[in-house]
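Q: What residues go here?
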């Protein structure tokens, strides 16, 4: 009976210590300005700014330059059709390609359309005419607008020329001749064709992971800076156990980011009318639970590398863009080299983003993203154990330093006491 009472008392003491650590972490997350910024302000504000930047979805009136060497009625019609489209705008006319190239170099335009001298003559002869399109490839979204508009205008003029030369008597004959195979374009998963709907879902999950890592790393750096010997774990009766430390800290982080995760994944897309969250919201939250836990334990594992508060910024921030690329969202996953795919498996965002995009934008359920869901739980368990190992190592080091310091103080006390006795003895002998 006494043994059971001792076990029960240890369990109760462990729960109390865990709650103490949880309250302390929650208080620190709110009172510490750096942690408050990364845990609260950045998740609240940054997704709004990022989504607002891409809220227009597509670019309009991209400025281009035109080099018209033909100076014919057909070339002017071609230019008017280009200018009247919603995506492009003829901003400048150049007399040569070199002059148009200078316009691009000065960023006055993002593309050039070159119409050769024999443009109208070739068409009137029934021969194939050519139009050259030069695009600034530094921004693919402007390239798409210029190239797609030019293709559409050229296709429309081709139909008009074919109809003029055919001599058909009915409109139906014109339709069959110009478009013998009819097709209907139906965009799926991103019906607006916008960049925001394409990239924002992935960025939202990445914001959750990176801010969590930044906050946990900064908390670790703060703990070391406030400790006299720069230990991650302080010497306290409440920090006498691995599980109470890991569970207390992780519970505080999870409670904060459960709210932030719901806000970022459900509220932000709704504010900006992104065509996402078409799946079951409860199943989506089911995916978010292992994702947040994996991010928390991953952040606690790498927090052992943080010595100062500023170090975490250099360690985490620069990795955001490579991590986004390795998810397979902006570049086909099958074309990513195997080495980098292996590196990407270390980050919870890789599988979290893939699962979240499929569920939010494609209407998948948890069964459809079972692979990502299982891997996230595996990462949660793996990083939980690595966190326990890291904190166990920190506790052992802290205890060793404490014992070593205690021995040094005791030796100094004995040495001082011996010295005092000798001084008293010498004074007594001198007196006698």
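A:
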């Amino acid at each position: 009976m006494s043994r059971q009472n001792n076990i029960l008392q240890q369990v109760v003491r462990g729960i109390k210590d865990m709650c103490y650590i949880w309250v302390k972490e929650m208080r620190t997350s709110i009172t510490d300005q750096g942690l408050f910024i990364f845990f609260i302000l950045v998740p609240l504000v940054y997704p709004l700014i990022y989504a607002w930047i891409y809220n227009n979805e597509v670019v309009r009136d991209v400025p281009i330059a035109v080099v018209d060497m033909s100076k014919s009625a057909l070339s002017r019609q071609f230019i008017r059709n280009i200018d009247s489209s919603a995506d492009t705008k003829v901003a400048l006319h150049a007399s040569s390609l070199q002059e148009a190239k200078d316009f691009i170099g000065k960023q006055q335009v993002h593309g050039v359309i070159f119409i050769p001298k024999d443009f109208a003559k070739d068409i009137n002869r029934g021969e194939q005419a050519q139009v050259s399109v030069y695009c600034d490839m530094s921004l693919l979204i402007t390239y798409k607008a210029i190239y797609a508009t030019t293709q559409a205008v050229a296709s429309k003029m081709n139909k008009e020329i074919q109809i003029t030369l055919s001599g058909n008597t009915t409109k139906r004959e014109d339709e069959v001749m110009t478009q013998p195979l009819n097709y209907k374009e139906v965009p799926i998963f991103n019906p607006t064709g916008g960049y925001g709907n394409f990239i924002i879902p992935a960025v939202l999950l990445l914001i959750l992971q990176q801010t969590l890592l930044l906050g946990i790393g900064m908390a670790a750096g703060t703990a070391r800076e406030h400790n006299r010997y720069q230990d991650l774990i302080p010497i306290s009766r409440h920090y006498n156990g691995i599980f109470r430390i890991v569970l207390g800290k992780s519970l505080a982080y999870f409670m904060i980011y459960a709210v932030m995760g719901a806000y970022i994944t459900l509220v932000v897309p709704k504010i900006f009318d992104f065509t996402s969250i078409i799946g079951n919201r409860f199943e989506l939250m089911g995916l978010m639970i292992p994702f947040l836990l994996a991010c928390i334990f991953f952040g606690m594992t790498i927090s052992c590398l943080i010595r100062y508060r500023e170090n975490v910024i250099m360690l985490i921030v620069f990795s955001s863009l490579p991590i986004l690329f390795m998810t397979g969202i902006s570049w086909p996953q099958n074309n990513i080299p195997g080495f980098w795919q292996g590196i990407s498996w270390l980050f919870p965002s890789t599988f979290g983003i893939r699962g979240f995009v499929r569920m939010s934008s494609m209407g998948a359920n948890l069964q459809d993203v079972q692979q990502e869901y299982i891997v996230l739980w595996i990462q949660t368990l793996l990083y939980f154990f690595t966190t326990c190992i890291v904190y166990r190592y920190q506790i052992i080091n802290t205890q060793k330093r404490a014992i070593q310091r205690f021995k040094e103080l005791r030796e100094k006390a004995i040495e001082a006491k011996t010295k005092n006795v000798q001084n008293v003895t010498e004074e007594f002998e001198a007196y006698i």
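A: Context that may help when evaluating the design: The longest helix spans residues 370-431. The longest strand covers residues 62-68.
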